[in-house]
User: What shape does this take?
Amino acid sequence: MPEGMNVEIAHKLGEREEHGKEKRRWEEFVEIVEAIVLALVAIATAWSGYQAARWDGHQAYLYGESSKLRFEADAASTLAGQTLLYDATTFNAWLQAHTAGERELTSLYESRFTPEYKVAFDAWLALDPFENPDAPPGPRYMPEYRNPDQEEADRLNAQASRIFGEGTEARETAERYVRGTVLLATVLFLVALAQRFKLRNVRVGLLVVSGALMLFGIASLVIYPKI
Assistant: This one.
């Protein structure tokens, strides 16, 4: 075999070996990047799922608290209505006794008013309501009138509404984490799909897309509320 041909064959074999080494270096680099992406995505997916579960539980707790407060508010409102009915009935009896001129009976009825109603009643009498046409029709309509049970019912209802709103926000946060988990699962699928291809451009392209989605998903998890 001529010496020149041997040199040419050796040169081609060297080029193939060099090309093989370059290909192996490229594959090793891509595999390392893919392993890093998979590790980060696996951790982020677990964290996202954990947060979604925590926020779901928090939502259930807040909704339960809101329902409990609503029941308490209804009970307080019922008691407030009963108290007002008692005072209104006593006041009507007082009016009848006052019209009949029975002072002892009117004094008895006045002593039966609840403390808060008595304050409003005294303020109402001070307006000379039987001679003053501008006076309110009764103590119930005086600014001095207070019903502690109704105030408690209003407070409980306001608190229940606030907690219910917090529960709705918790549900929305849980849904964000669920969407983040789905996005990260998509990244896992794309990385697994990329590993099936031998073409460099296709594999690198899928890896770039996966990396971009991973960065977006992790950045979203960072800014979401945590519990």
Summary: The longest helix spans residues 3-99. The two ends are 78 Å apart (CA to CA). Residues 35-223 form one domain.
